[in-house]
Design goal:
Shape: globular
Structural class: alpha+beta
Distance between the termini: 27 Å
Low-confidence stretches: none
Strand content: 25-35%
CATH topology: Aminopeptidase
CATH superfamily: Gcn5-related N-acetyltransferase (GNAT)
Largest sheet: 4 strands, antiparallel
Number of strands: 7
Number of helices: 5
Number of domains: 1
Strand order of the largest sheet: 1-2-3-4
CATH architecture: 3-Layer(aba) Sandwich
Length: 155
């Protein structure tokens, strides 16, 4: 159950940097792993905002890290669109328990509070998840097997 799940800003939970860094390196090996172009700790460090992008939210239960999601200004593939929901991650043992859905709802609410009417995301693996949460697929990057989604926000 997710009844006692809390969604908080990473900025208020900097002690989670090491576990978040390890999670990124494990989940997105091609990008954050050895030899990959990404720098997990650098990206995570930039997410420590509350009222401007980029922002990261974390899911906690009894002060244990269960997952995260970020809201960023840009995506490498569609620079003309903004903002982007990225880095959606749930600890493997906690998947399929509603945590991802709570994280995505929290980042949607945050986006509305920041004044955005649309948000975007992309995924190669979470296609059904985004569709289930009323995100609309509108583009595809075949060479990287990514589906691009948008979500219209509002009442």
């Amino acid at each position: 159950m997710t009844d006692d799940l809390r969604i908080e800003f990473l900025k208020d939970n900097r002690h989670l940097f090491p576990i978040l860094e390890e999670s990124y390196r494990t989940e997105w090996k091609e990008y954050y792993g050895p030899g990959g172009p990404g720098d997990a700790i650098s990206d995570i460090s930039t997410f420590c905002n509350k009222d401007k992008l980029p922002i990261c939210l974390v899911a906690l239960k009894r002060n244990l890290f269960l997952g995260s999601v970020a809201l960023r200004q840009k995506s490498a593939s569609h620079e003309h669109l903004s903002p982007w929901v990225t880095s959606l991650f749930v600890m493997p043992d906690e998947r399929r328990k509603g945590i991802g859905t709570k994280l995505i709802k929290a980042v949607e609410d945050l986006s509305i509070n920041l004044g955005f009417s649309k948000i975007y995301s992309r995924s190669a693996t979470a296609i059904d998840f985004f569709r289930k949460n009323n995100w609309i697929p509108f583009d595809r990057i075949e060479e990287s097997n990514l589906t691009i989604f948008k979500k219209e926000l509002g009442p």
